[in-house]
Amino acid sequence: MEQQSLDDRIKELEAQIADLKSRFPAHSLKAAMFAQLEEMEEQLAVLQKAKEEGQA
After folding, report:
1. Where does residue 40 fall: left (phi above 0), alpha (psi -120 to 50 degrees), or beta otherwise?
2. How many domains are contained in the chain?
3. How many helices (H) and strands (E) does the chain have?
4. pTM of the predicted model, to two decimals?
5. Domain span at 27
6. Between 2 and 43, whose confidence is greater?
7. Which residues does 43 contact at the CB level (< 8 Å), separation at least 6?
């Protein structure tokens, strides 16, 4: 993946994660929201690893 698009996708995912977390209720977090958060965080980790490997 091209470095610029990788950076853009990382920033986009970080923004989506922040938005999702801001919508979390104080209590009784729905399983679907938590699953969505986990999926996005996994995608972010993969992209960050790819970015690190591309810079090495």
Report:
1. alpha
2. 1
3. 2, 0
4. 0.83
5. 3-55
6. 43
7. 13
